[in-house]
Design goal:
- The structure is a single chain.
- This protein is mostly beta strands.
- The protein has one domain (8-42, 59-303).
- The chain is built from 1 helix and 22 strands.
- It has one helix at residues 76-82; strands at residues 10-15, 26-28, 32-33, 36-38, 41-42, 60-61, 65-73, 88-89, 92-93, 100-105, 110-126, 140-153, 181-183, 186-187, 192-198, 201-204, 213-216, 220-228, 244-252, 255-265, 281-289, 298-303.
- The protein has a 16-stranded antiparallel beta sheet that branches. Strands 5-6 form a two-stranded antiparallel sheet.
- The chain is globular.
- The N and C termini lie far apart (47 Å).
Length: 306
C-alpha cells in the first residue's frame, strides 16, 4: 500500500474568513508544518457506577481547537505577502490581527485550515561553524498559528504557482545582514540573531465546539543575539531602562527588509567562560518597546522591487 511523503506537500494562503475561493491564492514554498485539530471526548471520566471501569455510552464530543506552526525560508516577496497576516499594514503595527486561511496538501489529502491568526512569529538565522554541514545560514521564518477549524477539501485545479523572478524571490541568507545590524549607533558583528513577536492570542468558546473568536490581548517584540565579547559589544549590556536604538536590515542587491526598533532594552546578562579555551561570547536578550508617542516598538520596511 502506498504511503504519503512530504515531498509532494503544497501550501496556499488566502486573506479573510471562510468560506474561501482558492484561485488566486498565495502559494509558498515551505519547510515543515504541524498544524492540526485537537479534538476532545468528554463525559466518561468522572461518573460513578460502582466500578473502576469507564463506559463508552457516556462519551460525548467536546470542544476542539486548531494549533501549530509553519516554517519557511523567506524572500522579500514572501515578506510582502506575509506582512498583513502577521499584523503589519504598510510596515506599521496594527492593533487588530486579521483572519486568513491556509490550505495544506499533505499528499494523500488536502486540509483547509480556516480562520487563522498568527500568535507568534520568529525570524532567525546564524553564521555557519567552520566546515559545518547543512544550511545554517538560511534565514528561517516560523509562524505559530491558531485557527477555528480544519477540514478536508479538494485542492484547486488549476493550482496557484510559486512566484519566480529575480532577487525579490531569492531567499535571504544570514550574510545579507552584513554591516546592516546596527545597535546603539554601531554596526555589530553577530554570530546569530532572532527577531520575534508575540500577540498573546486567546481562542474564545461559547455554544460552538470550535472557537467563536480568536483575540489578540497584548503584543511583545523581542530581539536575541550572540555576539563576541569585546569593547564594542560590552556597551550593549551597560545601558539602563532608557534603552538603545537598533535596526536589522537584510539586503540582497536592490531588495531589502528592515526591522527598526522603537527602543531596545537589553538587561545585563554578564558573559561567562563556558567553553574552556574557546571564545567568550555575549548573549543579548532584548525587548523592543514603543518610544515617545510616535515611534512603534517595531516597524518593518520591505522593498521587493528588483
Amino acid at each position: 500500500m502506498a504511503t504519503s511523503y512530504g515531498t509532494f506537500s503544497k501550501l496556499l494562503m488566502k486573506d479573510g474568513e471562510a468560506p474561501y475561493t482558492w484561485s488566486g491564492a498565495d502559494r509558498f514554498e515551505f519547510l515543515r508544518e504541524d498544524i492540526r485539530k485537537y479534538r476532545r471526548f468528554v463525559g466518561h471520566r468522572r461518573g460513578l457506577r460502582g466500578t473502576r471501569r469507564r463506559h463508552q455510552d457516556s462519551v460525548r464530543e467536546g470542544a476542539y481547537y486548531v494549533h501549530g506552526t509553519v516554517s519557511l525560508y523567506v524572500s522579500p516577496n514572501d515578506v510582502h505577502r506575509l506582512l498583513t497576516r502577521i499584523g503589519f499594514s504598510g510596515g506599521v503595527f496594527q492593533s487588530t490581527m486579521p483572519y486568513f486561511g491556509m490550505f495544506v496538501h499533505r499528499d494523500h489529502e488536502s486540509w483547509e485550515i480556516q480562520d487563522c491568526k498568527v500568535n507568534r512569529w520568529t525570524l532567525q538565522g546564524r553564521a555557519p561553524e567552520f566546515r559545518e554541514q547543512g544550511e545554517p545560514e538560511m534565514m528561517v521564518f516560523t509562524m505559530e498559528i491558531f485557527a477555528k477549524d480544519c477540514v478536508t477539501a479538494t485542492w484547486p485545479d488549476p493550482e496557484p504557482s510559486i512566484p519566480t523572478g529575480g532577487t525579490e524571490t531569492e531567499n535571504y541568507v544570514y550574510q545579507d545582514g552584513e554591516t546592516n545590524v546596527v545597535l546603539n549607533g554601531v554596526a555589530q558583528e553577530l554570530e546569530e540573531f532572532a527577531i520575534s513577536a508575540d500577540n498573546f492570542l486567546r481562542p474564545r468558546f461559547a455554544f460552538s465546539r470550535k472557537p467563536v473568536d480568536i483575540s489578540a490581548r497584548d503584543s511583545q517584540y523581542g530581539f536575541t543575539a550572540t555576539a563576541p565579547y569585546n569593547a564594542t559589544t560590552k556597551a550593549l549590556i551597560a545601558g539602563g531602562p532608557d534603552g538603545i536604538d537598533g535596526s536589522v536590515k537584510l539586503a540582497n542587491g536592490t531588495v531589502s527588509t528592515e526591522f527598526a526598533f522603537g527602543r531596545l532594552i537589553i538587561p545585563t546578562h554578564t558573559p561567562t567562560v563556558r567553553s574552556g579555551k574557546g571564545e567568550i561570547k555575549l548573549r543579548l536578550e532584548g525587548e523592543a518597546l514603543d518610544y515617545s508617542t510616535s515611534t512603534n516598538a517595531m516597524a518593518i520596511t520591505n522593498d521587493n522591487t528588483p
